[in-house]
Amino acid sequence: MNFNIEALKMHEDNRGKIAIKSKIELKTKDDLSTAYTPGVAEPCRKIHENPDDVYKYTSKGNLVAVVSDGSAVLGLGNIGPKAAIPVMEGKCILFKEFGDVDAFPICLDTQDTEEIIKAVKQLAPVFGGINLEDISAPRCFEIEKRLIEELDIPVFHDDQHGTAVVVLAALINSLKLRKSDITDIECVINGAGAAGIAICKLLQSAGIKNVILCDTKGAISKNRTDLNSAKAAMAEITNVNGESGTLADVIKGKDLFIGVSAADMLSKDMVKSMNNPIIFAMANPTPEILPQDALDAGAFIVGTGRSDFDNQINNVLVFPGLFRAVLDLRLKAFTEEIKIAAAKAIASVVKDEELSKTYILPSSLDRSVVPAIVEAIKAL
Amino acid sequence: MNFNIEALKMHEDNRGKIAIKSKIELKTKDDLSTAYTPGVAEPCRKIHENPDDVYKYTSKGNLVAVVSDGSAVLGLGNIGPKAAIPVMEGKCILFKEFGDVDAFPICLDTQDTEEIIKAVKQLAPVFGGINLEDISAPRCFEIEKRLIEELDIPVFHDDQHGTAVVVLAALINSLKLRKSDITDIECVINGAGAAGIAICKLLQSAGIKNVILCDTKGAISKNRTDLNSAKAAMAEITNVNGESGTLADVIKGKDLFIGVSAADMLSKDMVKSMNNPIIFAMANPTPEILPQDALDAGAFIVGTGRSDFDNQINNVLVFPGLFRAVLDLRLKAFTEEIKIAAAKAIASVVKDEELSKTYILPSSLDRSVVPAIVEAIKAL
User: Using the beta-carbon criterion (under 8 Å), do A76 and B48 form an inter-chain contact?
Assistant: First the structure.
């Protein structure tokens, strides 16, 4: 199947992917008088008296804005807000299909950090949550941080935390097969953008002691003088042994490689230099190393972002359930505890008897993932 | 039926009125790969190469933002963006039900004119049109004017132009019954806010020569020194005989009263002083005069905004068809010609043999209104 041709046809035939649906019948004059004037004035009055009633009488409690400025879309880069719409609509229908979350695309015609923050705050009244998407680093950190501080609804940058949660889920199951404890393994993450930094932080919260982040210039350490503020902050809390050098230098003897970088960044020789390694090569569309090459070089387990290889590591396993839970429970924040619980829940969907080196994560289509996440977060 | 109680129940039982619907099946891995990664990259690339392809591959062409700041909601006044949501969701489901237009509520947490303009421009990429709603005058004029100038999609303030179109439709049919020509009648409009001014302008475009606008201080004329800029501009182009005084003073001998003001502003004595008058008393929820009182005082025809009296003059007859037409034809502006064509089309839905003093407009539920408007605008 040629997905490019099929995708163009699907998008053109349907004129996009989302529509609005009324939850109310409008067949009689009484229907009109109840859903619209004069009846509608009464829920308005109630909300005016008690703003929290907005969750009772409107769709807010199940509505999520999928917000992008089109600055870092898939592997396509800064293609702007209009060209980003197909991705955001896609995200919205995944939210609906898997989480029964009503998500709407907001593609902003500005790439100014302060303007994005202001615009999202201004349009927040109708939404119960904000999913930030495909906004380039380091702006995405400031935007997420400020919106979390300044809004009274949960805010989540999926490229960071959705990716981190699914990586942790994949790791949990890989370690069961490798019979290793998470506190004993050493990790290199190649790619120090939004996803790399978020993965790093969540793995540390989950117990990994030594993580080395690499960018195109090699290992990030306190000795580097060329780091932006986000990377400099990471230098303070990673790379406990102060290793320096290229990816090839620092990867030697490590147990886990996580790639959120670019095609062909990981060589077979590098894999050979590792310790019975777990390889998550998630660059899209071409991974840092092809799975067969990694296995030939001695990898214990290989996962990628692609659906046509085993072990697809895809955050569609994460965001529908995570938002479903947070909306249902009216939680204000996606804490580390919530993210770790979600990762464990996703991992738990793969039963011990099914778990194998080629099956470490549930299928993207597995309907038991969302309820598992919701139950786990409710139990916290 | 107690619409207040029913409305609370309906809104609470359904948790609001709108949901998102996927137009795409997501049942297989191939579905995911076509609607989302990797396939979705291809429509993104096409739009990046040719921005107009956004109409081909996304939902933009059928998506309308219903934008309010909650500053002038129904008769409730400035209740803010959250309390306005039930009205905006109601508008959205009317758009969907009658026009098959996908409309989404945007309730902005700002009432600053420049900030509203900026916010709407920033969120415009995903939308094919903007419906401004319940924004107080005179800010609404500047906001609409600037957005029309600065956006490449059609912008429409329904409180102004939707109301004007349905009033003109009601007038066209009333004049058939009264056997009068629109160029011969004289009119007083009570209420010089957004709706009053828009009605005035459209009636003039349709041929009425003498319209007098009144505010709470009486007739607006060039002699008044207390007018805001919007009213001062209207003084230049209305009240051809320079009449001054109260509503009671200037209404004498006139043929048409249009009320967009408040309860009980029109007395039976005023009606008696008019010339076989047509009375459109549209204040909500209590009209300027009750229909029976107006008829007792000699009114030829009476219409109100209410569904429980004959001749409901309601802009739900207008906006679904008008947007359906403008979206289908990719028109950039709602011109006077388009608005007059829509009014004539709405009037034409009432067949000559059905037309009577108690049936001058089609029912709000009449499914033939939208196609009639679309056909009329296509024929221009």
Answer: yes
- Side-chain-side CA neighbours of A91 within 13 Å: the count stands at 31
Q: Which chain A residues are within 8 Å of B82, Cβ to Cβ? A: 47, 51, 54, 58, 60, 125
- pLDDT digits over A61-114, tens only? 999 999 999 999 988 999 999 999 999 999 999 999 999 999 999 999 999 999
Q: Tell me if B93 sits within 8 A of A25, measured CB to CB.
A: no
Q: List all residues 6 or more positions away from B274 whose beta carbon is below 8 Å from its beta carbon.
A: B251, B252, B253, B254, B255, B257, B298, B299
pTM above 0.80, yes or no: yes
Tokens of B256: 């048409």
Nearest to A39 among B4, B21, B28 (CB): B4
Q: Do B96 and A3 touch (CB under 8 A)?
A: no
Contact of A239 with A168, CB cutoff 8 Å: no
Taken in order A85, A8, B56, B324, is the CA torsion positive or negative?
Answer: negative
Matching residue, tokens 């505890």: A337
Q: What is the DSSP string of A91-138?
A: HHHHHHHHH--EEEEEE-S---HHHHHHHHHHHGGG-SEEEE-S--TT
Task: Report how far residue B48's alpha carbon sits from residue B63's, in angstroms, rounded to the nearest whole number.
Answer: 20
Q: Is A57 among the catalytic positions?
A: no
Nearest Cβ partner of A34 from B10, B45, B92?
B10
| Structure ipTM | 0.95
Residue A36 is a catalytic residue: yes
